[in-house]
Design a protein that fits this description.
The protein is 72% helix and 0% strand. It is mainly alpha-helical.
């Protein structure tokens, strides 16, 4: 069980780290994300930059909390709320017929779709599962695993994180859904 909890924590940390880097790697990436926040009808154009910055700050805060053993439980609870809020915002955008990209992991031309909602919901579920595991197991942390267990958890997390981050590429491979990154 502790391997699954650590794999979930590493998956969340990987997704959050890639998301943050994708949005702040240069000024254009941030501006594109801020524009997407208003295009996805999360907020007005006037407030899109502060909301985008707050979103990135929240991701960074949750990332730090999840990785720090003493605050992992708080971080996982915050991750459930954060990914839940993102899922609600994406659901609203899809229902409103938004044609803007999700920009969850950086600039993309793929319009927001139900697959993005499902991906975000899966991240919220992973956070909830890890939270449950962290509260029922005594002191779950990265350091409690043997090297072999850590390797298994890391491998699972790397595979799941890569799959989630490259979701639009997989959609293109499977269904021919066009996009550019």
């Amino acid at each position: 069980m502790s391997v699954a909890v650590v794999a979930a924590i590493l998956t969340l940390a990987g997704a959050l780290a890639i998301s943050i880097v994708g949005k702040v790697r240069n000024r254009a990436s941030f501006e594109t994300f801020a524009h997407a926040v208003s295009e996805l009808r999360v907020t007005s154009t006037r407030r899109s930059r502060p909301v985008a910055a707050a979103s990135i700050a929240a991701e960074a805060g949750v990332l730090a909390l999840v990785l720090w053993p003493e605050t992992a439980t708080i971080g996982l609870a915050a991750a459930v709320l954060l990914f839940g809020a993102f899922a609600v915002a994406l659901t609203h955008a899809v229902r409103q017929g938004s044609t803007s990209g999700c920009h969850c992991f950086g600039p993309t031309s793929a319009p927001v779709a139900w697959r993005h909602v499902v991906r975000t919901g899966l991240l919220a579920a992973a956070a909830a599962g890890a939270l449950w595991g962290a509260t029922t197991l005594p002191t779950v942390s990265l350091g409690m695993l043997t090297p072999a267990q850590f390797l298994v958890a890391f491998t699972i997390a790397a595979f799941v994180t890569t799959t989630l981050v490259r979701l639009d590429d997989l959609a293109w491979l499977i269904n021919g859904v066009p996009h550019t990154r």
